């Protein structure tokens, strides 16, 4: 349960629409107090790499002052105020207390809910933890009382988490693998200890803990976090290391553009990482073992849904994605043999088609090309058909999308059904 | 309630092409820039999505994207002894009503003006002498030459992603381009658009007649392109919903896709939208500008103090703002003295219209600036000896309209406009209509000018701008000359029915179908404070921290569209501010 | 003149850097750079007009204007006529909206008749002009033929409309030829605009000339179909492909 809770909460952070200005982060780093400036600066970098701000800032609120409601299936958890305010923030904390919270999931009032990704941060080195603390202490104090726990019984019993931790919480610090390159080790550290990619991209077992299918992609609350393993059909098999770097730096690459929660991750976090760190992350993923994924047979072009969907595609989609589905590099995703389209779950596709996307606007690629939503325009069967067509043409093969799938997604998004035709 | 905003380094009035180009340059130089824009914020995906954009009624018929006359309009008369009356309905001057200005909905013809166009006085005197000028014509050089501007033309094209085929690179003629163009240092950023059937018929006919056809440089992107500011642009889809529409596909260069996303990444940039500047403020001695006063959409009066004031509104409104603010000397028609409102120009259009018999021209497959042109009769590219006029026109096969409401009246001569006969004629005419536009020069004249209207007021009670304009004798002569060339080519194209028109043969009207939207001058740049409002850097002669940018600075119109020349002169001025003015604030040219 | 109705609501200062905070009411806004992407307020979704009832015209006016429209665009072997295509519904909704109210025109005085090239100076709205003009049209028909326009045989309707077009049959309170121009423009709009506005039923106007409608991409055809006939079923903005 708890890992699921964490992932739900993360999603809430992201859906809360927090996109903090880079300038704001830089401004705080300038007010170093007792730690050397370079340690504080390094801590600021770690905070970005760990994307702390995504959850610990409310929409429109001051950075790190908390107050963002994380709506999980179990109830609401509100992210805490981690500014240096002594009364409402963590200004009175010691490094040891900070460590207990960040790496061990223990707050002053008992166990933290694993909405806080301490399961990942547990792997952070002592030196990095100290630097992160040095930076957090420079964050200007904001007096904002946050009531963290709004969970109903029985989820409000923090003691229950002791059991979960005993079962699933691996608090072993990160250890480099001497058989692997420095870059791969650095990438592993960034991915596992800081950026906590697996929280969304690794499927969970029945208890909400990692299933062992590491980075094989999974769905959560209307989005599918894609497969990051090395396979051509649904994963990153075709992407070069440079494609991964370009994507994390700019939000786009020659194949695609980010959408949904990942756009926020890129805008808030990965675009600010150094080139060496992005190369390390890419090296890490490319070093993962190749994985065979059996591609299904695509539905035939004569399939009624595919046929109807092709007509919708010509009218609704080709203007941007082009009639061949090729798209435009660094702007408009190619639909051709696109692993995200081949994902078994159509969740992200439904979300994007219904609600549109907010384009990634980064320093490296400020274009921010986005896609308009079609919820107001297309009926459920039209959307089901066009997605089924795209998933079974242009080199793609994936299960059909049904009108029921569309209706469910529409309901979840709060979008109204189309009333004409 | 009235309020004062914190002082900025620079305030820019209007965030269209010139305003956003200037804002990008000055924020990059580290200045704190505030732009005040009358229109609303707009972004491509939200405001012009492909899901709703292809709609002729709201677009080119109801003109929803334009600033409405209810917001502000102009009064017009042909002669100084007539009473000017307001343009009450949507007219031919198509102002933008949003961040991005007219640069969001423009047709996108993207010309570098020629060497002649920047120095018409010198060139005419050298080649023909004063005898070539009709009575009352005002001809003066800009103080800046094509060679001065070339790097800035180049830069602006690389911001816009202009598509085209180069004609002359580093002095060497290139196949397929315009052999008359000024020498370029680099080719167009993106390749020329595909040609239509009508373009090809024109091209073949013009070649047979010994002329030199080439693709008109266009804001419609020819291939995926990353512009000079790192923004990605997508190739044009020829959807045909272009002029008077925003582009939903990142395919038409506009401030919205070519500049604003970068500007909005800069903490030293702010834009206040839906607020109209009503006055430029100055010190009591009128030696320095101190900022601007604006009305926000709540009706409250705001003040934006600044060290530098840059006026980047629509051409006519630049003149109006100076007149409303009592800056520089207004032009006095009776005495011929004064400068603000003087040297106002329009454009001289001539046409060849034609109907073919059994073509499939498929007019709906087009973009705004999809045209093939000859420049053999433009500017001073031909010998005018004995012709009695100067200037000329770019003569082009223009394929920018195929939407049915707009074409419903285009039926062969003699066909009914309604009833059964109209249905038959429209069905046939739709696929068989083509046109050749002669987009001609217009030179300033002492009887063409702008001033404040004594009677009509805007929504805030401020006087409207009054346009006094009619075509002069030079226009009438050049118009007929160009019309005959249009008709000659149309006949050669093999059309069954051909007729021509020269607009200067009728009095000027703000409503004439097919007419131009290009107006220039009123706040011209030049070499002499007696005949210009500002110096060669578009810096006010009297107030050194005031720069009025845009086509209002141009003392004459060319046989081209003005936007890229506006972009180039804006970048030229931006460099002067960055590299000269900031180091030593004061007049950049001493008389 | 009334202030534009947008002149209400406050100045929303948006100094914060979050995406969420940009979804504030429209009106004057201050956008500060440094936060990446700014979004505009989305326009309301497009909808199809409700053709089941009249929203401006009276029943009698609708019947009369339908009869006039059917003279201008008749039913024949090339397709259905104007009324059948929904042009009266189109007009009715247009007159009830900003077009009918001349909401975007400059309407401040003084109102002075000018030279033709100075353009229309009347500040009467299209809605007002239809109310007056249709009554005048019927009076003129009564005066000329002794019966209402709708009861005239086809040839007389055509002859009468030619008289209106040229101004030979005059009205008392407005220029008949100017009213004719408006009728002709509006019926063409109804017949050729997107069907969501109430007219152009089954895209009859687009099929008449072979216009493909709300298509956004002709890249594949620019060269391959240059100079060739294109057989394509048109699509409208809200229709099914």
The tally of structural domains of chain C comes to: 2
Proportion of residues in β-strands of chain B: 15-25%
State the low-pLDDT regions of chain B, or none. none
- Supply the CATH class of chain B: Alpha Beta
Average pLDDT reading of chain C: 88
Quickly count the helices of chain B: 14
- Structural class given helices, strands, pairing of chain C? mainly alpha
Number of DSSP-assigned strands of chain C: 2
Largest sheet of chain C: 2 strands, parallel
Shape of chain C: globular
CATH topological fold name of chain B? FAD/NAD(P)-binding domain
Give the overall form of chain B.
globular
Helix/strand-derived category of chain B reads: alpha+beta
Number of helical runs of chain C? 7
Integer count of domains of chain B: 1
Q: Give a quick account of the main beta sheet of chain B: strands, pairing sense, barrel closure.
A: 8 strands, mixed
Described by its quaternary structure, the protein is heterotrimer
Beta-strand segment tally of chain B? 25
CATH architectural group of chain B: 3-Layer(bba) Sandwich
Organism (chain B): Gluconacetobacter takamatsuzukensis
Protein name (chain B): GMC family oxidoreductase
GO molecular function, one term (chain B): flavin adenine dinucleotide binding
Domain Glucose-methanol-choline oxidoreductase C-terminal (chain B): 453-568
């Amino acid at each position: 349960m708890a890992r699921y809770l964490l992932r739900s909460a993360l999603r809430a952070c992201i859906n809360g629409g927090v996109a903090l200005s880079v300038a704001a982060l830089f401004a705080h780093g300038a007010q170093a107090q007792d730690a050397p400036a370079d340690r504080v600066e390094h801590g600021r970098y770690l905070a970005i790499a760990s994307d702390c701000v995504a959850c610990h800032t409310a929409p429109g609120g001051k950075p790190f002052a908390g107050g963002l409601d994380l709506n999980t299936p179990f109830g609401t958890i509100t992210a805490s105020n981690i500014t240096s305010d002594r009364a409402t923030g963590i200004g009175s904390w010691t490094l040891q207390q900070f460590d207990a919270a960040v790496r061990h999931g223990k707050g002053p009032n008992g166990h933290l809910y694993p909405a806080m990704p301490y399961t990942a941060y547990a792997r952070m080195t002592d030196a990095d933890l100290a630097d992160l603390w040095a930076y957090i202490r420079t964050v200007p104090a904001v007096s904002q009382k946050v009531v963290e726990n709004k969970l109903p019984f029985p989820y409000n019993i923090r003691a229950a988490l002791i059991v979960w931790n005993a079962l699933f919480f691996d608090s072993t610090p990160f250890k480099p693998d001497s058989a692997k390159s420095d870059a791969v080790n650095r990438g592993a550290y960034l991915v596992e200890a800081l950026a906590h990619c697996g929280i969304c991209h690794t499927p969970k077992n029945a208890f909400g803990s990692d299933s062992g299918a590491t980075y094989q992609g999974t769905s959560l609350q209307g989005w599918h976090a894609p497969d990051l393993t090395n396979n051509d059909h649904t994963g990153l098999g075709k992407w070069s290391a440079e494609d991964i770097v370009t994507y994390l730096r700019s939000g786009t690459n020659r194949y695609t553009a980010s959408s949904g929660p990942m756009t926020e991750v890129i805008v808030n976090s990965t675009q600010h990482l150094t080139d060496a760190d992005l190369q390390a992350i890419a090296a890490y993923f490319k070093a993962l073992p190749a994985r065979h994924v059996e591609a299904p047979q695509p539905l035939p072009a004569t399939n009624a849904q595919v046929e109807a969907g092709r007509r919708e595609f010509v009218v609704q989609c080709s203007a941007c994605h082009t009639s061949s589905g090729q798209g435009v590099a660094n702007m408009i995703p190619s639909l051709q043999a696109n692993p995200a389209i081949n994902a078994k779950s159509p969740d992200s596709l439904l979300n994007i088609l219904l609600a549109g996307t907010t384009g990634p606007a980064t320093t490296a690629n400020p274009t921010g090309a986005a896609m308009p939503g079609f919820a107001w325009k297309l009926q459920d069967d039209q959307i089901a058909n066009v997605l089924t067509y795209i998933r079974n043409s242009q080199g793609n093969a994936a299960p059909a999308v049904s009108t029921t799938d569309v209706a469910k997604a529409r309901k979840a998004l709060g979008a109204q059904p189309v009333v004409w035709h | 309630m009235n309020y004062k905003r914190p002082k900025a380094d620079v305030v820019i009035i209007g965030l269209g092409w010139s305003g956003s180009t200037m804002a990008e340059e000055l924020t990059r130089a580290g200045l704190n820039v505030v732009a005040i824009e009358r229109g609303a914020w707009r972004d491509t995906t939200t405001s012009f999505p492909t899901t709703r954009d292809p709609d002729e009624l709201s677009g080119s018929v109801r003109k929803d994207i334009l600033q409405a006359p209810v917001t502000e309009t102009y009064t017009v008369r042909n002669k100084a002894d007539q009473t000017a009356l307001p343009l009450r309905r949507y007219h031919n001057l198509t102002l933008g009503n949003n961040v991005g200005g007219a640069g969001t909905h423009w047709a996108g013809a993207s010309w570098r003006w020629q060497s002649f166009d920047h120095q018409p006085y010198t060139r005419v005197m050298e080649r023909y002498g004063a005898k070539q000028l009709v009575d009352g014509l005002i001809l003066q050089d800009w103080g800046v030459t094509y060679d001065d501007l070339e790097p800035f033309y180049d830069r602006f094209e690389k911001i816009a992603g202009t598509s085209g085929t180069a004609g002359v690179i580093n002095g060497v003629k290139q196949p397929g381009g315009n052999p008359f163009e000024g020498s370029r240092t680099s080719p167009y950023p993106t390749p020329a658009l595909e040609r239509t059937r009508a373009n090809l018929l024109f091209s073949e006919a013009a070649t047979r007649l010994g002329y030199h056809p080439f693709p008109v440089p266009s804001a419609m992107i020819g291939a995926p392109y990353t512009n000079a500011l790192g923004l990605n642009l997508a190739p044009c889809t020829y959807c045909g919903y272009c002029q008077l529409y925003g582009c939903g596909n990142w395919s038409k260069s506009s401030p919205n896709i070519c500049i604003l996303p970068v500007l909005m990444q800069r903490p030293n940039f702010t834009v206040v939208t839906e607020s109209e500047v009503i006055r430029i403020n100055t010190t009591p001695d009128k030696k320095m500008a101190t900022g601007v006063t604006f009305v926000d959409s709540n009706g409250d009066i705001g003040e934006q103090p600044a060290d530098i004031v840059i006026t980047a509104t629509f051409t006519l409104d630049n003149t109006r703002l100076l007149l409303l603010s009592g800056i520089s000397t207004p032009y006095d028609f009776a005495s011929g003295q004064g400068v603000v409102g003087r040297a106002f120009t329009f454009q001289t259009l001539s046409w060849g219209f034609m109907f073919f018999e059994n073509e499939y021209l498929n007019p709906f497959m087009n973009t705004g600036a999809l045209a093939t042109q000859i420049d053999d009769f433009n500017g001073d590219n031909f010998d005018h000896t004995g012709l009695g006029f100067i200037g000329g026109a770019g003569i082009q096969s223009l394929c920018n309209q195929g939407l049915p409401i707009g074409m419903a009246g285009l039926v062969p001569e003699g066909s009914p406009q309604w009833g059964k006969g109209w249905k038959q004629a429209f069905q046939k005419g739709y696929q068989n209509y083509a046109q050749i536009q002669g987009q001609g020069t217009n030179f300033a004249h002492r009887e063409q000018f702008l001033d404040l209207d004594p009677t009509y007021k805007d929504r805030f009670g401020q006087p409207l701008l009054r346009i006094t304009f009619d075509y002069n004798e030079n226009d009438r002569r050049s118009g007929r000359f160009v019309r005959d060339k249009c008709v000659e080519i149309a006949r050669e194209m093999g059309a069954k029915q051909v007729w021509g028109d020269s607009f200067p043969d009728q009095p000027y009207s703000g409503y004439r179908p097919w007419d131009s939207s290009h107006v220039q001058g009123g706040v011209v740049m030049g070499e002499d404070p007696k005949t210009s409002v500002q110096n060669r850097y578009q810096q006010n002669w009297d107030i050194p921290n005031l720069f009025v940018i845009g086509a209002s600075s141009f003392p004459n119109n060319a046989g081209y569209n003005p936007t890229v020349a506006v972009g180039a002169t804006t970048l030229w001025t931006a460099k002067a501010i960055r590299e000269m003015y900031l180091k030593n604030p004061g007049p950049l040219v001493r008389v | 003149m009334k202030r534009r109705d947008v002149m209400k609501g406050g100045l929303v200062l948006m100094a914060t850097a979050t995406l969420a905070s940009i979804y504030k009411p429209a009106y004057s806004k201050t956008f500060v750079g440094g936060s990446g992407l700014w979004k505009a307020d989305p326009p309301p979704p497009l909808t199809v007009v409700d053709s089941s009832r009249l929203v401006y015209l009276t029943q009698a006016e609708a019947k009369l204007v339908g009869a006039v429209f059917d003279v201008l665009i008749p039913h024949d072997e090339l397709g259905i006529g104007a009324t059948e295509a929904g042009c009266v519904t189109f007009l009715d909704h247009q007159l009830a909206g900003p077009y009918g109210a001349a909401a975007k025109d400059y309407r401040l005085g003084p109102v002075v008749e000018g030279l033709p090239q100075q353009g229309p100076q009347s500040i009467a709205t299209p809605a007002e002009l239809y109310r007056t003009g249709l009554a005048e049209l019927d009076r003129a028909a009564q005066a000329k033929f002794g019966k209402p326009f709708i009861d005239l045989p086809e040839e007389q309707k055509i002859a009468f409309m030619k008289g209106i077009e040229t101004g030979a049959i005059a009205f008392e309170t407005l220029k008949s030829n100017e009213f004719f121009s408006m009728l002709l423009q509006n019926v063409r709009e109804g017949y050729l605009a997107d069907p969501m506005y109430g007219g152009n039923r089954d895209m009859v106007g687009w099929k008449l000339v072979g216009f493909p409608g709300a298509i956004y991409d002709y890249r594949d055809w620019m060269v391959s179909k240059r100079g060739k006939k294109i057989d394509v079923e048109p699509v409208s903005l809200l229709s099914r492909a």
